Automatic annotation (TrEMBL):
Keywords: Coiled coil. This is IS4 family transposase. It comes from Marinobacter persicus. Residues 158-219 form a coiled coil. The keyword Coiled coil applies. The keyword Coiled coil applies. Pfam families: DDE_Tnp_1_6, DUF772.
Length: 470
């Protein structure tokens, strides 16, 4: 019988005599090693980069950073599994120089160095910019929900607590009524001791819920996650409501590199455009021309501020229809704004002067009376007065809306949305393994760093990056 046969286990040399021979010259693990070695980890704020003269010698943060980058490139986030890989994986043996830290040491590094890892992400983008991989001509911004480590069942809202308290009151009243009926009618079939025990439990549970509700009211919060207070209950497209965080990415169109990222607790993207764009500009050293985002980022004040800084902002309008009547009614676009008179002219030729201001909604309101005598009333309003609103930053919103052409929106989608798909594949199918915003941010930054490294290798190749790092 002619079968392939393995090497005898008693053979003296099973592996190459040198650890250097464990990985090929064009293996991505060599890029990880060279890039981390090029960093000044002390300046970036890594803990234990500077050691004390006494005590046990710690692992170098550079070695642990290399291990984590390799781990996320290979979709491994479990620290216990990483501990095993340090003993059996030839690539990890080469990368770690045969060091084998325990899982607790590995986990503590990720938890304690979130801000420093984010600086490493920024430094890699600087390297990519010098290598010509980032242009800044068009940067797309978008957000996506990532699940927290906590269970969704641990999240409660004010309404849920109030509903639970109402049900508890009903149960308590029912038990009290049973006790009262038993005492009056001499019902010997009722076990008073067990009923009293159940009442005591319900009263204790009610007190806990009341304390939890009071805390939410005192802190002016609408929700709370019992096991992970940093996480928030938020809408997530097809998945409905999830307990997690809102991840923000600013992606350069040239090679889909993430130039800036942020993990936030915000349930929507309405307040994220300006801070993310400014951080992206700083990373690109001011070389940012066009910012593209979807309608969820439509914020007049932030768009106006960015346009005043000479950015081309392309964001579709996300404003409500001015007239909610039946189809065929005149919309706001049918009214002409007269800036000299600060008034609107309606389709019937009448003026709607400025009436009042809504600071909460950042709106100017215009109206006129006597619409019930207008021959076009049936196409305009059922009331005697038609109102038209104008945003404080109406002109900025219009310019951003005009810039958001269908072609740019397609480019936005093709630039930023694939990054989230890849990151969710790298990061445990979009669910963090770390608890709390700080640790989850560190985990997300490691995922972003691994993603950018993979993109750069795909473009330049291992040898091309090593030549630039040399």
């Amino acid at each position: 019988m002619r079968h392939l046969e393995g090497t005898p286990r008693s053979q003296t040399l099973l592996l190459p005599p040198s650890v250097e021979d464990y990985v090929p010259e064009d293996h991505p693990v060599r890029v990880i090693d060279a890039f981390v070695d090029s960093l000044n980890l002390s300046e970036m704020g890594f803990r234990k980069a500077q050691t004390a003269h006494t005590g046990r010698r710690p692992y170098h943060p550079g070695d642990l950073l290399k291990l984590y980058i390799y781990a996320y490139l290979n979709q491994t986030s479990s620290t216990r599994r990483l501990e095993k890989e340090c003993h059996r994986n030839l690539e990890v043996l080469w990368l770690m120089k045969q060091l084998a830290p325990d899982f607790k040491t590995i986990a503590d590094f990720r938890k304690d160095n979130g801000d420093a890892v984010k600086k490493v992400c920024r430094q890699f983008i600087v390297f990519c910019k010098q290598a010509g991989l980032v242009s800044g001509q068009l940067v797309a911004i978008d957000g996506s929900k990532f699940k927290a480590a906590a269970s969704k069942d641990q999240a409660v809202t004010r309404k849920q607590l109030e509903k639970q308290l109402g049900k508890l009151d009903q149960k308590i009243d029912r038990y009290l009524a049973q006790l009262a009926a038993s005492e009056q009618g001499g019902d010997s079939g009722l076990n008073s001791d067990k009923v009293s025990e159940a009442l005591a439990y319900l009263e204790a549970h009610k007190a806990e819920l009341q304390d939890e509700l009071k805390t939410l009211v005192d802190e002016d919060k609408t929700q709370h996650c019992r096991t992970e207070p940093d996480a928030r209950l938020m809408k997530s497209g097809r998945e409905g409501m999830v307990v997690g965080y809102n991840a923000q990415n600013a992606v350069d169109e040239e090679h889909q590199l993430i130039v800036h990222h942020e993990l936030t607790q915000a349930g929507n993207d309405n307040q994220q455009l300006k801070p993310i764009a400014q951080e992206a500009r700083d990373v690109l050293e001011g070389e940012l021309e066009t910012i593209v985002a979807d309608a969820g980022y439509s914020n007049g004040q932030q768009i106006s501020d960015l346009q005043s800084s000479e950015y081309d902002v392309a964001v579709p309008s996300n404003r409500a229809v001015n007239n909610q009547g039946a189809g065929g009614h005149f919309q706001k676009s049918d009214f002409t704004y007269l800036p000299e008179e600060d008034a609107y002219r309606c389709p019937a030729g009448k003026l709607l002067p400025h009436k009042t201001v809504s600071n909460k909604d950042r709106m100017h309101l215009y109206a006129r009376s006597g619409c019930n005598q207008c021959p076009l009333q049936s196409q305009c309003t059922k009331a005697d007065r038609r109102w038209v609103s104008r945003h404080f930053d109406e002109e900025a919103l219009d310019r951003a809306d005009d810039s958001a052409t269908p072609e740019r929106m397609i480019r936005r989608m093709a630039t930023v949305e694939p990054t989230f798909a890849t990151l969710k594949r790298l990061l445990n199918k979009g669910r963090f393994t770390c608890w709390g915003l700080g640790s989850a941010s560190s985990e997300y930054s490691l995922g972003v760093l691994s993603y950018n490294l993979m993109r750069a290798i795909n473009v330049l190749g291992v040898k091309g990056i090593l030549a630039r790092l040399a």
